[in-house]
Specification:
single chain; 443 residues; alpha/beta; eight-stranded mixed sheet; three-stranded antiparallel sheet; 40% helix; 14% strand; globular
Length: 443
């Protein structure tokens, strides 16, 4: 079952640590089955309860998963190792459409904003005990959020969207709680949840976002939290429309104790409005990051929510990093106010690239999805084969396994840098790799 590797240890902590080290070192592979508890107990000469305790620790750490009678196995993306085993190695000469990055040509220059923020810091150095949120950033962010219909609430500044998701989940949930997540959905979130000792329940997605009946089923089934991406959903490009938002809000009001987390990382790169669900439950958080519009290295996101949630997030932040650099916060304010980024033009450019590829694929009988954001999602019958054939044809795309729990297979194509002259050639290659298929959903 384990090949040549033999798990060692006499105490539960030692057994768990041995498995965790083996997974991190690659001696135990993602998806590899582990011995039944009684069998491993016999091998080690320990009580089966000791192995059961070790397996429980490993589940809570996001290293393994247990599926009833099918036993325990190393997670497909264990928390002890990077998700890089699902990466596509892009050989020289192959066009990389797998990375998920924005177009560097559409990012604003950062030098002037940081020079101004640095000059301000030289005049008035930031010392311990300063407020965690730059007042000017709070003012600008609060105005933008209010204009988009996000309810009033206190603000926190965090190191990106995923940092915010992790802190909110940790503020309210305990190991073993269940979180409803979009499927397909953002792979880092799908990895983060089990790493926190939480369980996932998938919620199907179409072009308008999470399916209402799936959300109702998950919340009625005991899910304590729901995470949604409002726009530019990764990997599918879904965006929650007005009608879908009303239907989802009705479900959430019927489950007021649900922890609602909304990720609006697409702000500044999309040409569709946001329809926030915030405020429909007792505890909620709305997170807006700057990475996609202003640059992935700007690790900053603004979070607002109910008072209890934001207070817990800020309290835990004070015990850890303390705050996100005010130099960075002031530079972001300069970027927002100086107007070097024409967000309408950026959103229009990404929209043209998505639409061009979706239309080109449709002409070849390939159903694809990409309502907003940087990516196009293509359902395929054979994910591994499609990725390999496209790589052979000179195109690197992301395997859908990075983003799926139980959704059908697909591939994600990042169109952010796709040139007009490339679109037809890429569509020909996709058609050759996957064959014609009816336009269909991805749930």
């Amino acid at each position: 079952m384990l090949g040549e590797y033999r798990i060692a240890g006499r105490r539960a902590a030692d057994i768990a640590a041995d498995v965790e080290r083996a997974v991190g070192a690659g001696a135990l592979k993602p998806g590899q089955p582990l011995p039944p508890m009684r069998e491993l107990a016999d091998q080690l000469g320990v009580n089966p309860n000791t192995v059961a305790a070790a397996y429980r620790v490993l589940r809570e750490r996001g290293v393994i998963e247990t599926a009833g009678r099918r036993g325990s196995r190393v997670r497909s993306a264990p928390a002890t190792t990077a998700r890089d085993h699902l990466r596509v190695d892009v050989p020289e000469g192959v066009r990389d459409l797998a990375d998920g990055n924005p177009d560097p040509a559409l990012l604003p220059p950062l030098g002037p904003a940081f020079a101004a923020a640095s000059a301000q810091g030289d005049r008035d150095p930031v010392l311990y005990g300063e407020a965690a949120v730059e007042p000017e950033l709070a003012r600008v962010a609060r105005a933008e959020l209010a204009a988009d219909g996000v309810p009033d609430g206190p603000l926190a500044v965090l190191s990106g969207s995923l940092d915010g998701v992790e802190r909110v989940l940790s503020a309210h949930l305990k190991p073993g709680d269940t979180v409803a997540v979009e499927d397909p959905g953002w792979g880092r979130t799908l990895d983060l949840i089990p790493a926190l000792g939480l369980r996932t329940v998938p919620v199907g997605v179409d072009d308008d976002g999470p399916l209402v009946e799936d959300v109702e089923r998950a919340l009625s089934g005991g899910a304590r939290a729901l995470i949604v991406i409002d726009r530019a959903q990764n990997p599918t490009g879904a965006a929650i429309g007005a009608s879908r938002a009303r239907a989802l809000a009705a479900v959430l009001r019927a489950h007021p104790e649900t922890l609602l987390i909304e990720d609006d990382h697409g702000d500044g790169i999309v040409d569709v409005p946001v329809h926030p669900l915030a405020g429909t439950t007792r505890h909620w958080a709305f997170i807006r990051s700057v990475a996609k519009a202003y640059g992935p290295d700007l690790r900053l996101a603004v979070l607002t929510g109910d008072e209890t949630t934001v207070d817990r997030v800020l309290g835990r932040q004070r015990l850890g990093p303390g705050w996100v650099s005010l130099l960075l916060q002031r530079a972001v304010v300069r970027l927002w106010e100086d107007g070097d980024l024409d967000t309408r033009a950026v959103a229009a450019a990404y929209s043209r690239r998505r639409a061009s590829l979706v239309d080109a694929l449709a002409r070849r009988g390939i159903g694809a999805h990409g309502r907003s954001g940087l990516n196009v999602w293509v359902p395929v019958p054979d994910e591994t084969g499609a990725v390999a054939r496209l790589l052979h044809a000179g195109w690197a795309v992301a395997p859908g396994a990075r983003f799926r729990l139980s959704a059908p297979p697909g591939v994600r194509i990042t169109v952010s840098t796709l040139g007009e002259e490339e679109t037809e050639r890429l569509a020909d290659a996709v058609a050759e790799a996957v064959g014609p298929a009816p336009a269909r959903g991805y749930v």
